[in-house]
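Backbone geometry tokens:
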Amino acid sequence: MRAYDLILKKRNGGELTTAEIEFLISGYTAGEIADYQMAALCMAIYFQGMSIRETADLTMAMAYSGDVNDLSGIEGTVIDKHSTGGVGDTTTLIVAPLVASCGVPVAKMSGRGLGHTGGTIDKLESIPGFQTEISQTEFVQQVNQIKLGLIAQTEALVPADKQLYALRDVTATVDSIPLIAASIMSKKIASGADGFVLDVKTGRGALMQNYAQSEVLAKTMVAIGKKVGKPTVALITDMDQPLGYAVGNALEVKEAISVLSGQGAADLTDLCLHLGAEMLVLAGHSPNQESGYKVVEQKLKSKAGLEKFRELISWQGGDPRVVGDLSLLPQASYQTEVRSRQSGYVSSIDALKIGSIAMQLGAGRKTKNSSIDLGVGIELKAKVGGYVERDQPLAVIHSNQPLQQEPQLVLNAFSISQARPQQRPLIWAKITEADV
């Protein structure tokens, strides 16, 4: 085989075989196929697309390009939850303890944030002492003991994805749905779980900003799961405004604790209960979504999820006192209120703008090598549909340096109208294997 011939085949609309895809990925990972040839292939895929079979083969070739976690030593069915990324997306810190408190094992490998989207590992590392890197043996033992473990992805996991993503980032091929789906699902499969619940965001703060694109991505990933024998379900959820009230690492940990205490934002709480219910169904714990929802809701009300989060922190070297004393988390030096200049209904909050401002404050990374400030971020004081009076706080900016244009930028992210806006749904659709 020659890379040239396969690039030509895909450029002309042909379908690559399993062996051809494996040749390309293994050759590229080994340094035998040049960046410029793989860039040409990515562009050909961008324009010609891939069949589900091709995309599944690409996913598996990428998944097995490096280490693959063996979670067979964990008792029970391991279901992973993955979000395509958003602003204030704190769901893992809430859903994982709730599901684990139901007796279903949650062994999750998560990533760090990049750009305006936050990363679960960064959030966990804002807890003093929390260790996100433990050995595979310790990880399996911990999950068997407490049904929960949250650790960072290792460098040896899916090296093909790291190389391909860096290439796509500089060749205008990031927004190819087959390449996005293969990137996400290859990491999930390599992480070793038995099935997946996917939270596919749609709206201004999401990777896919319109519903049609989000639906195609969700169906593609569910189809990949079906093709490779990993039961998968996807919820398409709203990311036009930030989820919950907090944007920023320590701020989001505080909000997760508030939700687990039964006092959190309604939208974040409800979404977490729905995601948890789907995980219970896939794990065989609950017969349907409705019964799963009631089980997870009961664990929230009894604070069993909160105690499981405290247990997780303790097992992974963190200070469990943070659950009862939020002041132990990193605190920013300055808190600056942003006040409304008129009375009316909040008609929109631009999630992308809020996430981008938080990143500029230091809550996120501009590049993979950027350092972050765990204490900074933005705390919303109003949500879409709420009525605010003139001079009422819309948000509080948490920063470690005096602000310049940031208050005005945050104010610009809010739109105020005299008419109550129509609420967007929190969950737009559910995609199951029956839909693909």
